Amino acid sequence: MPRRRWRLGHPVAIGVLVGIGIILLFAIVWICVRGYLAQRALNDAVPAADTIKTAITSGDLAAARRASDELSSHTHTAASLTSDPIWMTAEGIPWIGPNLGAVRTAAAASDSVASHVVGPLVAAGAAVDLRALAIHDGRIDLAPISAAQPAVAKAATAFTAARASVAAIETGALFSPVAGGIDRLHGVLDHAAPQIDAIDNAARLLPSMLGAAGPRDYLLAAQNPAELRSTGGLIGAVALVHAENGSLKLLRQAAGTSIGPWDAPVADVPVATTGLYGPLVGRFFQDANLTPDFPLAAATASRMWTTTYGDQIDGVIAVDPVVLSGLLKSTGPVTLPTGDRLTSQNAVKLLLSDVYQRYAEPAQQDDFFASAARAVFDRLSSGDVNSKKLVSALADAGESRRVLIWSAHPSDQKILGQTTLAGGLPESDLSTAGIGVYFNDATGSKMDYYLGSSVAAGSAVCRADGKPSTVVQVTLTNHAPADAATSLPKFVTGGGTYGVTPGFIKTRVAVYGPTGGLLAATLSDGKNLPTVSGLDRSRPVSLFTVQLAPGESQTVTVQFLNEQQSAANLSVVTTPTLPGDGSTPDVGAQNTVKPIVVQCSSVVK
Predict the structure, then answer these.
(1) Rounded to an integer, what is the distance from CA 549 to the centroid of its chain?
(2) I want to staple 227 with a disulfide (CB 3.0 to 4.6 A). Which of 72, 234, 305, 428 is the partner?
């Protein structure tokens, strides 16, 4: 029997085609309508998100919870509208499909953040609002933080997954409006990431570090940026702080000069560190932080304290007077036994300059520093503080690397190691070169109060192998008065004790290149500058000395050849310094690293 062949105009064929057309038209209309409704739902979610931020800032947790419910409702609607079978089937269509997939992923991520991150954190309320932490009779109630920790951990995990899903969306071939929306969502999540990390880290760290599971003893090290060390300043004073079940007590205070020195290192110092910074790191307490590796410096200082006093140390916390000025914004002025009123405006000048004009003897200076530390600690412990300003100041200080923390407990240190509080050496990855610029005083005095510093850096692909070259420019300026040799105390100028002309500032600068990279050149005025070169944990280091008369300035350029990166991205950390002009920097102000355009004709290839 012969087969029946239908022509295109046959009624059955026409019926089939019409049916398919109707289905396609329905699918298109279905997707368009649901896409429009999803977009409207996400747009409606924006005011709710803004309300949550405003309510949390003002402390209105009830309003934050209502807005959180509204936000979740809108994002859930958007996720539902973009995840039905028709929508997901259409994602297989060339050209339009990737756009639909991107919209679905973005909607699902938004819903996950709203339902599994914002909602639980708002529900946890004050327990995860670090600004609401209050000190009563020298104690912080750790129970709410401990109780909230499981919810915070789940929220952090959900946020990480949502952020990763959005980051994985390839936007190059998407429609411009879709790509723009994805980029904006990516930016929002990136901006929120540090806050989520901070909440998660605090919930995991605070209970244990404040003695919830047993007492802890910490060294509180006061770094003096008027005599620079790589991590911030010479450790001029130190205190032993006892933490137990949220309560804090100041047990002992000591001057940095009262600890050591020893004829041989009392701690294990790597050979590379000794090669770069000399044998004093393991022998002199005040030189333990010549290395920029704070975990190494802190462990060394801890060992030195134990050798001297016998106490077993659970961690080291380093701060400087700029941090103190920030804390004083939360306490208000504090009256010292001398009658001085220590304020956020005068703390830096009083502790880093005026004290040396007033007291000629180091013992008197040490007594003044100890009394100031005791007075501020007592005020903080009393609870007579503005908690929001206190936490804000500490957070800013952590970002600017003026607060550094090391823990002798591996579980705590692992968490700290993921933050700026750890003060580790600069980290590089396949896309970004980690650069470090660190300063150590070589005058042997307190002249760094007058030292101005600026750092500029840039990177470009100039080599045939496609690897970037990195250029770092360091400029130092001596802002001391022209008559510094006679107008400043000998304790400040050094009086020539270490071979430096009074009024001059001598600084040893260490510039760290990217992990696995090569040091190519160190130049000043276009000429090679004498330098000590070496490796510190696979990072190339250029170590050079700059000596400046009052009013003098010098710029040094260091070049590195990157080996692991293919992109010209940089992440630069520096020693936190003073402006050099007598002004007080804001506690959150980071040393500005200016971008420079690298000229390939001027770099070593």
Answers:
(1) 34
(2) 234
Relative orientation angle of helices 362-382 and 321-331, to the nearest 10 degrees: 40
Strand-pair category, 553-561 with 451-461: unpaired
Q: How far is it, in rounded angstroms, from Cα 51 to Cα 63?
A: 8
What tokens were used for 515? Answer: 């992990």
Q: Name the phi and psi angles at 590, rounded to 5.
A: -95, 150
> Which pLDDT band, with edges at 50, 70 and 90, does 432 fall under?
very high
Q: Tell me, what amino acid is at 47?
A: P
Q: First and final CA of the chain: distance in angstroms? A: 81
Q: pTM of this prediction? A: 0.86
Token digits of residue 52: 């949550």
* Cα-to-chain-centroid distance, residue 538: 22
Q: Which two tokens stand for residue 27?
A: 């699918």
Class of residue 102 by CB neighbours under 10 A (exposed 0-12, middle 13-18, buried 19+): buried
Residue 538: both structure tokens together: 């696979």
10 Å CB burial of residue 151 (0-12, 13-18, 19+) is middle
Which tokens is 17 given? 């085609």
Q: At 456, is the secondary structure helix, strand, or coil? A: strand
Strand 432-441 with 569-574, pairing? parallel
Residue where the block lists tokens 């509080």:
421
Tokens describing residue 259 = 């600890």
Provide Rg for the chain, Cα atoms: 30
Closest CA to 434 of 476, 396, 395, 472: 472
Condensed to tens digits (0 to 9), the pLDDT of residues 441-498 reads 999 999 999 999 999 999 999 988 889 999 999 999 999 999 999 999 999 999 999 9
CB 360 within 8 A of CB 402: no
Q: Rounded to the nearest 5°, which phi and psi values hold at 395?
A: -65, -45
SS percent in the chain: helix, strand, coil, step 5: 45, 20, 30
Q: Tell me how far apart the alpha carbons of residues 234 and 122 are, in angstroms, rounded to a whole number.
A: 42
pLDDT (tens digit per residue) in 503-559: 999 999 999 999 999 999 999 999 999 999 999 999 999 999 999 999 999 999 999
For the residues of 175-205, what is the DSSP string, one character each? Answer: -HHHHHHHHHHHHHHHHHHHHHHHHHHHHHH
pLDDT band at 12 (very low <50, low <70, confident <90, very high): very low
Query: 3-state class of 535 per DSSP?
Result: strand
